[in-house]
Amino acid sequence: MADFDVFYYAAVALLSGHSPYTVHGFFLPAWALIPFMPLTLLSPVTAHAVYMIVTLIGILAALYRFRLKPLYIVFVVLLSPAVWSNIWFANLDWVVLLGATLAPRYGIWLVCIKPQMSFGLIGLWAWKKHWVPLIVAGLAFIANYAILGLPDTNVPHGPGYKQTDLFPYALPLFAYLIYRAIKRSDIALALASSGFGSPYYSLTSWLSLTPVARSRKTLLAVLAVSWAIFLAWRLTP
To answer: How many domains does the chain contain in total?
Structure first.
């Protein structure tokens, strides 16, 4: 519940007229707190339970919008540790996933919440010359921290916190995937590529792989990679 607690109390702080960055552990732009604002009317435990349901619905909606076959959506939701971890930890990766299905002028506001998860997709949009929404969102990103202040980056993480990035070992794979994504204008592949090029990637962010489960082979590949990363996360001290 640690992730949800951070977002919940950051939303409380913002609604009270304080900077959300007074809450240790909150680093994202302030508009990331919009889904949590109505939940502050509930107790943290009840709000967390509601948000778990919202997360599942959001993931299902995103995968549907990516046009995955219904049976493949069922397999991904039931068998992917990336989906389970998002529901349990109640993070915001599903918002990025949903944002990737929208037109750039709308989706950029959602995907830039976690740039380490979406920079491959943002690169594709830049290649396709969607300059205006990218520039506007970039300026808003800068203004957010200029107005509200910078978060405390020296906050110690909990004992169970571990990164799952593959940087720099997977950079060749990232280069190959982003090349294929740009060549094919493939939004799902562009989003998935980020996990292999980012130096900062949490377990929940591997949700970015799920949209490429469009065939039997890619479904098996997504599940295999997701399980390998999950097991490494569990077994690494």
So the answer is: 1
CA dihedral 38, 40, 46, 49 (to 10 degrees): 60
Q: Max Cα separation, the chain?
A: 50
**131, 222 contact by CB (below 8 A):** no
Q: How far apart are CA 117 and CA 160, in angstroms?
A: 21
Domain boundaries, position 111: 2-235
Smallest CA-to-CA distance from 110 within 92, 124, 96 is with 96
Q: How far, in whole angstroms, is CA 161 from its chain's centroid?
A: 16
pLDDT at 153: 73
The rounded distance, in Å, linking the Cα atoms of 164 and 206 is 9
Task: Specify the amino acid at residue 121.
Answer: L
Per-residue pLDDT, 159: 42
Q: How far apart are CA 131 and CA 133, in angstroms?
A: 6
The answer to whether 119 and 198 are in contact (CB under 8 A) is yes
pLDDT given for residue 214 in this prediction = 96
Look at residue 115 in the predicted model and tell me its pLDDT: 95
Q: What is the pTM of this model?
A: 0.94
Q: Do residues 33 and 109 lie in contact, with contact meaning Cβ atoms separated by under 8 Å?
A: no
Mean pLDDT by 10 residues, the chain (237 residues): 88 96 94 97 96 97 97 97 94 97 98 96 97 97 96 62 89 98 98 96 96 97 97 90
